[in-house]
Amino acid sequence: MGHALTAFIEANGAKIPQVGLGTWTLRGKECARLVEQAIAAGYRHIDTAQMYDNEREVGEGVRAAGKRDDVFITTKVTPENLHAKDLERSAHESVKKLGGSAVDLLLIHWPNSRIPLAETIGALNKVKRDGLTRHIGISNFNVALIEEAVKLSEAPLVCDQVEYHPFLDQNKVIAACKKHGLALVAYSPIARGGAQQDKVIGRIAAAHGKSPAQVSLRWLVQQGVIVIPRTSKAERLKENIAIFDFALSAAEMQEIAGLTHRRGRIVDWAYSPKWD
Description:
Blueprint: E1 8-11, E2 14-17, E3 21-22, H1 28-40, E4 45-47, H2 55-65, E5 72-77, H3 84-98, E6 103-108, H4 117-129, E7 133-139, H5 143-152, E8 157-163, H6 171-179, E9 183-187, H7 194-197, H8 199-208, H9 212-221, E10 226-227, H10 234-241, H11 250-257
Parallel strand pairs: 3-4, 4-5, 5-6, 6-7, 7-8, 8-9, 9-10
Antiparallel strand pairs: 1-2
Helix pairs in contact: 1-2, 2-3, 3-4, 8-9
């Protein structure tokens, strides 16, 4: 079970560290400091987005840690910026704010049904050809949109980033990703703290001498999923990455998979696609 730093998921040419720091809601100096601390604690993957309004601070934190070449940075284009010209401008802005010549992975944050996906995917390919990003991918795409995006893209898409945790069944999206060689990146992997309250996860955690959050994350990484837990507490950083020194049994994996329920989804907006 090597150390956290050795865990990567390879997908369509990208080598993505399996545990990353999600930075949604982190702002200002606190954000920069937490990113720096995360890298010091062993994180090699930082996830941000234009929508989070913290790309500049994330860039500062990465520079302060002095490990830019070792850190995989993901950012995302907001749904308003999915016309070709807007996406290009937006990619340039993100790269500039993050303070480098390129990001590692650029995603479409949410699909926008008012803008043709062909135009957006074309622009995403162009910014990759122009060297603004090493890899491209999607986020919050359902199965039908994954199929469409894969067909439209010249360069391979490397992931779909979606909400995924023990209370949400994502089997259909997982199958679509597998079929096309995409990694699945899970946001809200602890169900925004919901895992901490669950009795089944609590019992399994106690049996392993781990926290419920660690068990929830372990359940995901054992499926080959990439996780980007968000935290604003420095002590949680170490806990969230210390998930490579134990394994869940097949029975435990199955028991946790049985926790899904129909109201399991946390993140849902008026503009969300029709979920599978």
